[in-house]
Every structure is written in structure tokens, then in C-alpha cells.
Design brief:
Elements (H helix, E strand, L loop, with lengths): L4 H10 L10 H9 L9 E5 L4 H14 L4 E4 L11 E3 L2 E2 L2 H19 L8 H16 L4 E5 L16 E4 L7 H4 L3 H8 L9 E3 L4 H13 L4 E3 L5 E8 L2 E7 L4 E7 L5 H18 L7 H10 L7 E5 L2 E5 L4 H14 L4 E7 L6 H11 L2 E5 L9 H5 L7 E4 L2 H11 L4 E7 L1 H16 L6
Parallel strand pairs: 1-5, 1-6, 2-5, 6-7, 7-8, 13-17, 14-15, 14-17, 15-16
Antiparallel strand pairs: 2-3, 3-4, 9-10, 10-11, 12-13
Length: 440
């Protein structure tokens, strides 16, 4: 039995030694022992390469504004581990996490002795989430974010009310496949019989695979630029404005506070899902609730402005598609700034492609090491850069503090890369910025 939060957390993190083990057998075994809690949850399932977390928060905020209690299961965390299981955006308490760990620990130990082997860290956390929302905290809806892929992801034992696939990119190719089509097949694994799937996938080969899987499952499919479209987009100082043309309702001049044109697509997927749930009589959220929810939606570490003077932005662009989006936003919004990028990454990413894109937009680029099993070394990243103004740094904490002290009115510091790095860097930067007094 765990008696403290740190004991429980150390045990959960200790499961990382088991790595990634795709498959549903271990989850099904644990759920059977727990009385199938996943069958007692109303859920929406969200997969895709990028944008899952943002879509989760748009959907949660809209439903919450409509008066509903909404649970979320997301990964990885940015500010604290507990946020992976949250209710109305509030992470579970330390005491609840200990309680959940004590429920799952005996099952993990028993499972370890079978031919299936012990559950991974992600499987343990997923089991905790199912148990929590079915047995401890009943909510109106739970939004589950896929951890990796979809078909064999541990969240894929649910029967959701709707499925969402945000987009498809070449990420986790060592596990999911080397082509858009192969990866799309894995993502499309979350499509269930007769359950509608909403998607913003544009890549033609990937979309074709998703359409084929939807047809096999007799699942209605709602696609961007076909059943719905986004128009009249305009970037605002702190957000975006757009019009959504959808089968059930067209909404003009929608506004979101999260920055980036790509966020309009994530917001649209959330709106379409709510409209569908409304139409089925499962929920009732009025147009004003949709608009208010969009404005209130906030997801940490996604092109997030931590400070305006000095201008500091943090963004979890952890794969090639994320970097492409980041570079686009920097080029269009801040082309008059001296852009200094600080970048850290994991070794299993397309580092040469990612760094090549950053080189084009950065006036200065610094590569840092951080403490994580799969983290790339700063020197390794440096050697991939063609920038004429580059630097490798081992101790990122002291380096960031020194750099922030030198920022002028025309400078922009962008801290980006691995979400695991972002989860360490954000609280560190926020603590410093909170104590800085800036003369206007």
C-alpha cells in the first residue's frame, strides 16, 4: 500500500522501464478484474498526430460552459502529473492519485506473473482514469486522448459517442509505420461500428484510408473541406477569428484565444462534435455556450505567450508537423522580431528536418540537453544545424535565465521541442518571470 504521493508517483514512473507495448490484452485483463468500468462512461475519443490536446480542451470548455461536468484524460502533462486525469480542467488531488495507485498496484503485480507481462506506465494511468471516472467521480462526459496511434492504444477499449481524428503526420514511424497511409490506418483504429468520426485530415492518402475504415464500420464521416469548411480566417493579437460552415449550423465570426491558424481546425472539430451530441439529444449547448467555451479554452504549452515584456513564447512542437506550424506562425506574426529559438528534442524524431525548418526562421538558435532517457544531446542537435548563429548548451536552466536578461523590445525568445522538456521548462520560466519587475 502506498501512503504518500511520492511513493505512488515513483511506482507509476517506474513502469517506464517496460517501454511501449502496443496491444489491448493487458487493458482488457485489468478492466475485467475491475468490473469493466469503461462500459459505464460516456466518452469521446480523440486521436491524431498533433492537435489532440487542444481539441480536448475546446470540447471540454464548450461542454463545461453549457453546464456539464467533464472529465479528461490527456498526455503527457505540462505543469503537473495529476493533470493527466482532470475534471473541468482541475487535476485530481494527490490523495486521489494515491487511492487510484493502490487500486491498480495489486492488479499490475498479478498481471506481471502472467504471460501477458506487467502493464506499462501509460496502461497503468489509463486504468486509473477508467476506474476514477466510473467509480469515484461520476461526470457527464469523459474525453479520452489517444496516447500513441489508436488501434492498439490502451484507451481503445471504450465505445465512444463520437471519434475525432485531428490530422496525420509522420511521427512515431518506428512504431506506427513510415507512410501517411500506414499511420492513418493505426489512427483510424479508434473508429467504432456506427459511431461518427470527425476529421481534419487533409493528406489525400491518409484520408482515403480513414474513409475506407469508416465505410467498413458503417461509421458516418464528417471531413474538413467536404462536410464542413473554415473560411474568413483572421489572426488576432491574442487568438484567431473564423467562420465555420457545418451540416447542422453555420457559425460566423467565431473567436478563440489560442493562437495559430491550425487551432481553428481543432476548434471546428470540437464544435461539430457538440452539434452532433446536441442533435442526438445527449447534450444541450446553445450557440452562446459554444462561443464562450471557445474563448475560455486554454491548453498550456501550445504557442503560449508566457510574457510580453520580455516576449517569451513556449511551444511543444515535438515533431516535424508541429515545427512546420510553429515556423509558419513565427514567420507571419513576428517577422519584425529578432527570433532566438531554444530547442530540445528526443532522439526518435526527424531531427534533421525539424532543425532545418527552425534554421530558416531563427536569427539565433540554441540547442539544449535535458534529463530524459530518450533525450538528444545538445551537441548532436548542434551538428544537424546549418545556422551561422548556433550554440550547444548542457545546463539549460542557467542559460535561459541569462538569455532572458538580455532580451530587448525587438527580441523574441521561443522555447520549443519535446513536451517532456516543455513540462520542465515552463514552470521554471514562469517562476523567474513572476519575480521580474519590468519598467514600462
Amino acid at each position: 500500500m502506498f501512503t504518500t504521493y511520492n511513493e505512488a508517483l515513483d511506482w507509476i514512473h517506474g513502469r517506464l522501464r517496460l517501454g511501449i507495448k502496443p496491444g489491448l490484452k493487458r487493458m482488457e485483463w485489468m478492466m475485467d478484474k475491475l468490473g469493466s468500468p469503461e462500459d459505464n462512461i460516456k466518452a469521446v475519443h480523440i486521436g491524431g498526430t498533433n492537435g489532440k490536446g487542444s481539441t480536448v480542451t475546446f470540447l471540454r470548455a464548450i461542454l463545461q460552459t453549457g453546464g456539464y461536468t467533464v472529465g479528461t484524460f490527456t498526455s503527457p502533462y505540462i505543469e503537473q502529473f495529476n493533470e493527466r486525469i482532470s475534471v473541468n480542467g482541475k487535476p485530481i488531488t494527490d490523495e486521489e492519485l494515491v487511492q487510484l495507485a493502490n487500486v491498480i498496484r495489486p492488479l499490475a503485480d498479478e498481471l506481471e506473473m502472467t504471460e501477458l507481462g506487467g502493464p506499462t506506465e501509460f496502461e497503468v494511468i489509463t486504468a486509473m482514469a477508467f476506474y476514477y471516472f466510473a467509480k469515484i467521480k461520476k461526470v457527464d462526459m469523459v474525453i479520452f486522448e489517444v496516447g500513441l496511434g489508436g488501434r492498439f492504444d490502451s484507451t481503445n477499449i471504450i465505445q465512444p459517442l463520437a471519434s475525432i481524428i485531428t490530422n496525420i503526420g509522420l511521427d512515431h514511424t518506428n512504431i506506427l509505420g513510415n507512410t501517411y497511409e500506414e499511420i492513418a490506418f493505426e489512427k483510424a483504429g479508434i473508429i467504432k461500428d456506427g459511431t461518427p468520426v470527425f476529421t481534419a485530415v487533409k493528406q489525400s492518402g491518409a484520408l482515403r484510408v480513414i474513409e475506407e475504415q469508416a465505410e467498413k464500420k458503417s461509421a458516418p464521416i464528417i471531413r474538413i473541406n467536404q462536410e464542413f469548411s473554415i473560411s474568413d480566417h483572421e489572426s488576432l493579437t491574442r487568438g484567431e477569428q473564423f467562420t465555420l460552415s457545418a451540416p447542422l449550423q453555420t457559425l460566423k465570426d467565431l473567436e478563440i484565444s489560442m493562437m495559430g491558424q491550425h487551432q481553428t481546425e481543432n476548434a471546428a472539430l470540437a464544435i461539430l462534435t457538440v452539434q452532433y451530441l446536441n442533435g442526438k439529444g445527449l447534450f444541450t449547448v446553445m450557440e452562446q455556450g459554444i462561443r464562450s467555451g471557445l474563448m475560455q479554452a486554454y491548453w498550456p504549452g501550445r504557442f503560449e505567450v508566457l510574457s510580453e515584456r520580455p516576449l517569451v513564447i513556449i511551444d511543444g512542437a515535438h515533431n516535424e508537423e508541429g515545427i512546420t506550424t510553429l515556423v509558419h506562425e513565427l514567420s507571419t506574426r513576428f517577422n519584425d522580431r529578432n527570433i532566438h529559438i531554444v530547442f530540445a528534442a528526443l532522439t526518435d524524431k526527424k531531427l534533421d528536418e525539424m532543425i532545418g525548418k527552425l534554421d530558416h526562421v531563427a536569427n539565433q538558435i540554441s540547442f539544449v540537453s535535458f534529463d530524459f532517457p530518450r533525450a538528444a544531446k545538445a551537441e548532436q542537435l548542434l551538428n544537424l544545424s546549418q545556422s551561422s548563429n548556433k550554440l550547444a548548451v548542457d545546463h539549460w536552466q542557467s542559460y535561459l535565465l541569462e538569455e532572458m536578461k538580455t532580451l530587448g523590445d525587438k527580441d523574441l525568445l521561443v522555447v520549443t521541442g519535446s513536451l517532456y522538456f516543455i513540462s520542465e521548462a515552463k514552470p521554471y520560466l514562469c517562476k523567474y518571470l513572476k519575480n521580474v519587475t519590468i519598467s514600462l
